[in-house]
């Protein structure tokens, strides 16, 4: 049999030998062949490399150039004469700089000179426009603020000292979280393991979750390498974005950076965001970021009524669609809330909303077409909802409503308790109304309508399970009205005490995360995230598997073994979208303890079925080997697995021709 010559085992039975990773990444023609492949299996075999990222950057630059022409055309049609809006030059500058970076990467002197000359012209035009506006402002004076407008809303593009202090502190906090995650070790958690596995291939869809998080993770891996660093960077960047968008929304609706900073602090009192999201969540974190960004862009669209805000609204809404499917509920609640507030409904233009929604649908269409063709994969984890488990419509709905109430109360209880304490202890007699009551009403109604739509979905589907983090997109907004209420009622002493409480909570979370690698060395009790997988991999290699296809029962085992066998294709048994091949070695791994818990011996049921359907192999017919990992400090068993190595089928040989010595391979 030929030795494997690919950088990673591919998924075509009849696939030809592919070049190594550095050859693929450095060849534009091969990249073009991959992106335009007519065979879906071959497209699925593509892994995101640095070259893919640069192609995406180049396409983004071209998109910016196309957008500037679209905006110029729309403005000219609106005014019935040819005009060049200032946005034209900003889009030109953004597109020019992006394409200049791409040209430098390609080392194309013609491309570089062309873009460099254009960037100089764009900057000069923007300078002349800014100089003219300063001259006009100097001769006419600064116009007074309109009623209800504050200095921060007039300078909405700047972040003042309160915002810089709070957001800077949270940036340092998440940087510390990245360092702590690196110190914890290379073993990944369940959700991290799923991303390690899924990012082996670049597809339009994977499992019951949309693919945007995996696409972003692939991009980060292409830049910094596969492993814990890339996982931690993306996760903590998204978590910081949650606090950033809460601050931006709160400043819009309150007109005060101090209130916006209080909203950021109040968000930390939501445990699903400050703890659960930090510990082990992925798609819910991304959906929360996209949802908050959608609210912010809608508020901008209502206040400023600019085309670029409609485009941003569409991009954010589309990102929500590609983050998690319940984003549809959030967007419906947000639009219904916006239309129910008279001041916002009067400012929103139908064409802006249609432009944004059309762009969102366009961005999400490829994945939703994929999902329609792969319903078994899309609905794979529908059982988590407990759909139809109630004995009747009334019984099932009642269980679901109770679960919804418990999840909502559990999500909001710590923040509500803190607000009640501060209202009672530090109270000011003369509360002031928010600067933009319509914005506050939008935030509150969005939360209520989201819960109402969720309740309707529960009644229709008879779902009996609702988890707290499923409510993150909407209930993360709760900190904004809470901050407005706190700022209007408490004294300066109360504000300082609130900052101290949040700071104490942040230190507690950091110490708890640090305990995952510090405490076990003293107590001998190790968390799951410190399970050593190196001994497991060594024993599997001794059993005869070094490279090929590795199948595990779940994302945790598959993700951790993928890091030990980087040249192999690692799959968890419920993942059906990865193409496989039978002419390479396979290894099936499972935890026998899980089978004993459900009263079944032998291989895990999903691994056994996968082996029979995808490899045509009767797994229980072969006695398994054991792979045991022990903790170095205590010698206790950390993980006990069983595995079976299946060699590739023997290649048939042709008999030697008469008069010719030896045999030939076919």
Topology:
Elements: H1 21-26, H2 28-35, H3 40-44, H4 50-79, H5 86-106, H6 109-140, H7 151-154, H8 161-184, H9 190-198, H10 212-224, H11 228-254, H12 257-267, H13 271-280, H14 283-304, H15 307-321, H16 327-340, H17 342-347, H18 350-373, H19 375-378, H20 393-425, H21 437-461, H22 472-475, H23 479-489, H24 492-523, H25 534-542, E1 549-552, H26 555-564, E2 569-572, E3 586-590, H27 592-597, H28 605-615, E4 625-630, E5 637-646, E6 653-654, E7 664-665
Parallel strand pairs: 1-2, 1-3
Antiparallel strand pairs: 3-5, 4-5, 6-7
Helix pairs in contact: 4-5, 5-6, 8-11, 8-12, 8-24, 9-26, 10-11, 11-12, 11-14, 11-23, 12-23, 14-15, 14-16, 15-18, 16-21, 20-21, 20-23
Written account of the structure:
This protein is mainly alpha-helical. It folds into three domains: 51-140, no CATH class; 159-371 and 384-511, no CATH class; 531-646, no CATH class. Helices cover 64% and strands 5% of the residues. The protein has 28 helices and seven strands. The strands form two sheets. Strands 2-1-3-5-4 form a five-stranded mixed sheet, sandwiched between helices. It has a two-stranded antiparallel sheet with strand order 6-7. Helix 8 packs antiparallel against helix 11 (228-254).
């Amino acid at each position: 049999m030929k030795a494997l010559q690919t950088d990673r085992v591919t998924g075509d039975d009849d696939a030809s030998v592919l070049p190594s990773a550095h050859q693929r990444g450095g060849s534009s023609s091969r990249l073009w062949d991959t992106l335009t492949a007519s065979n879906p299996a071959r497209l699925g075999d593509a892994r995101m490399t640095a070259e893919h990222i640069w192609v995406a950057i180049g396409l983004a630059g071209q998109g910016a150039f196309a957008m500037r022409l679209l905006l110029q055309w729309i403005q000219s049609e609106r005014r019935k004469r040819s005009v060049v809006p200032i946005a034209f030059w900003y889009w030109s500058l953004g597109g020019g700089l992006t394409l200049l970076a791409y040209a430098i990467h390609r080392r194309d002197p013609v491309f570089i000179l062309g873009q460099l000359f254009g960037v100089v012209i764009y900057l000069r035009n923007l300078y002349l426009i800014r100089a003219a506006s300063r001259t006009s402002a100097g001769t006419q004076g600064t116009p007074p603020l309109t009623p209800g407008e504050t200095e921060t809303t007039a300078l909405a593009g700047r972040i003042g000292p309160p915002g810089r202090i709070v957001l800077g502190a949270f940036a340092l906090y998440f940087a510390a979280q990245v360092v702590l995650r690196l110190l914890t070790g290379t073993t990944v958690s369940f959700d991290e393991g799923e991303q390690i596995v899924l990012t082996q291939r670049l597809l339009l869809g994977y499992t019951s979750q949309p693919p945007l998080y995996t696409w972003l993770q692939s991009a980060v891996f292409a830049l910094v390498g596969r492993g814990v660093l890339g996982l931690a960077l993306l996760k903590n960047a998204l978590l910081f974005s949650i606090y950033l968008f809460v601050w931006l929304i709160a400043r819009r609706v309150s007109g005060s950076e101090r209130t916006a900073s209080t909203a950021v602090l109040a968000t930390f009192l939501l445990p699903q965001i400050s703890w659960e999201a930090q510990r082990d969540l992925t798609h819910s974190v991304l959906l929360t970021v996209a949802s908050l960004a959608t609210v912010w862009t809608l508020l901008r669209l209502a206040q400023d009524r600019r085309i670029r805000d409609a485009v941003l609204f569409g991009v954010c809404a589309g990102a929500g669609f590609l983050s998690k499917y319940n984003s549809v509920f959030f967007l419906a609640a947000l639009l219904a809330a916006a239309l129910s507030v008279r001041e916002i409904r009067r400012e929103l233009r139908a064409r802006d909303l249609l432009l944004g929604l059309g762009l969102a649908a366009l961005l999400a269409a490829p994945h939703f077409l994929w999902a329609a063709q792969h319903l078994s994969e899309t609905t794979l984890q529908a059982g988590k909802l407990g759909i139809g488990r109630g004995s009747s419509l009334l019984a099932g709905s009642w269980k679901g409503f109770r679960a919804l109430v418990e999840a909502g109360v559990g999500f909001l209880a710590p923040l509500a308790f803190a607000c009640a304490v501060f209202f009672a202890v530090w109270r000011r007699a003369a509360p002031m109304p928010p600067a933009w009551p319509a914005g506050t009403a939008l935030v509150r109604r969005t939360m209520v309508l989201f819960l109402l739509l969720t309740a309707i979905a529960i009644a229709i589907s008879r779902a009996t399970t609702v988890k707290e983090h499923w409510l993150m997109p909407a209930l993360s907004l709760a900190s904004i009205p809470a901050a407005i209420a706190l700022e209007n009622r408490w004294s300066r002493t109360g504000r300082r005490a609130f900052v101290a409480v949040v700071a104490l909570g942040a230190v507690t979370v950091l110490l708890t995360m640090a305990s995952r690698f510090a405490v076990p060395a003293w107590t001998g009790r190790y968390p799951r995230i410190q399970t050593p997988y190196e001994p497991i991999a060594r024993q599997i290699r001794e059993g005869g598997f070094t490279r090929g296809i590795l199948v595990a029962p779940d994302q945790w085992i598959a993700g951790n073994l993928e890091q030990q066998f980087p040249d192999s294709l690692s799959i968890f048994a419920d993942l059906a979208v990865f193409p496989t091949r039978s002419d390479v070695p396979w290894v099936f791994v499972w935890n026998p303890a899980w089978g004993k818990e459900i009263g079944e011996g032998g291989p895990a049921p999903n691994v056994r079925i996968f082996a029979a359907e995808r490899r045509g192999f009767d797994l229980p017919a072969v006695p398994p080997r054991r792979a045991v990992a022990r903790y170095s400090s205590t010698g206790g068993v950390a993980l006990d697995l069983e595995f079976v190595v299946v060699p590739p089928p023997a290649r048939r040989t042709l008999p030697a021709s008469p008069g010719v010595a030896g045999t030939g391979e076919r």
